[in-house]
């Protein structure tokens, strides 16, 4: 008997899956299986993961939106500390939902996992003081192969929770902050990505 509940085609976008593992609580704390190949296969998820990643970010950090072009990665993501708003954007030309986004809050408490297949841009905004983010990938990191999409492209129109600020025509973080005043914090490269019209598609 499997220990995961899988919601397929999350947000009406084919391939996106929200996975909820069974959590076994007892007087000591809890136990859960964070990945079980057989349970995944029983739900039609037969991808093979070759790399595990972990990052730590402070409140207001936004990482993304990222993808690899020649070596696209499927990603099974989760949060082990704090909370983030995690987003996938469909970049599969020919897809009925090309250019559409789906976002989900992943937290230490809800223990939800989100599977984003190849062909999507992916990113997240940190809503807690600190967030530790873990993910499995179906292909290796190829630094020269990275592509990106502007996190605030008006054509996509992602509603980032708690975020306030005016679009100034680029992915720059300038002028943006969370409702509590925390400044939006992006890497230099993530402030330079183009919007949907001018970026790569699969
Ligand atoms: C992604 C990655 C980065 N690195 C290195 C490169 C760099 O020196 C440092 C930080 O890299 P980045 O700034 O690209 O890290 P980050 O912004 O966290 O990149 C990640 O963002 C999220 C949203 C994703 O979807 C991931 O696939 C990945 O692109 O870590 C690796 O060695 N291996 C990896 O797999």
UniProtKB/TrEMBL annotation:
Q: Which residues cross the membrane?
A: none
Q: Report the Pfam families cross-referenced here.
A: dTDP_sugar_isom
UniProt EC number: 5.1.3.13
Instruction: Name the reaction it catalyses.
Output: dTDP-4-dehydro-6-deoxy-alpha-D-glucose = dTDP-4-dehydro-beta-L-rhamnose
The pathway that the record names for this protein is:
Carbohydrate biosynthesis; dTDP-L-rhamnose biosynthesis
Q: Which GO terms describe its molecular function?
A: dTDP-4-dehydrorhamnose 3,5-epimerase activity
UniProt xrefs under InterPro entries: RmlC-like (IPR000888), RmlC-like_jellyroll (IPR014710), RmlC_Cupin_sf (IPR011051)
Which top class of enzyme applies to this chain? Answer: isomerase
Q: Which UniProt keywords apply?
A: Isomerase
Q: Which CDD domains match?
A: cupin_RmlC
Q: Which family does it belong to?
A: Belongs to the dTDP-4-dehydrorhamnose 3,5-epimerase family.
Functionally, this protein is described as follows: Catalyzes the epimerization of the C3' and C5'positions of dTDP-6-deoxy-D-xylo-4-hexulose, forming dTDP-6-deoxy-L-lyxo-4-hexulose.
Relate the assembly described in the record: Homodimer.
Name it.
Answer: dTDP-4-dehydrorhamnose 3,5-epimerase
């Amino acid at each position: 008997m499997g220990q995961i509940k899988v919601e397929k085609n999350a947000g009406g976008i084919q391939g996106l899956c929200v996975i909820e593992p069974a959590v076994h609580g007892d007087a000591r704390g809890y136990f859960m299986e964070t990945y079980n190949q057989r349970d995944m296969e029983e739900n039609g998820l037969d991808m093979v993961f070759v790399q595990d990643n972990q990052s730590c970010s402070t409140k207001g950090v936004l990482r993304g939106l990222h993808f690899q072009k020649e070596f696209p990665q499927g990603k099974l993501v989760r949060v082990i500390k704090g909370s983030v708003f995690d987003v996938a954007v469909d970049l599969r030309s020919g897809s009925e939902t090309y250019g559409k986004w789906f976002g989900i809050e992943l937290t230490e408490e809800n223990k939800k996992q989100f599977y984003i297949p190849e062909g999507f841009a992916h990113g997240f905004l940190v809503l807690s003081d600190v967030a530790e983010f873990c993910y499995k990938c179906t292909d290796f990191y190829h630094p020269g192969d990275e592509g990106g999409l502007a996190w605030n492209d008006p054509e996509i129109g992602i509603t980032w929770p708690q975020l306030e600020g005016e679009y100034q025509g680029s992915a720059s973080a300038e002028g943006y902050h969370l409702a509590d005043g925390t400044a939006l914090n992006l890497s230099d490269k993530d402030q330079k990505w183009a919007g949907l019209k001018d970026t790569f598609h699969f």
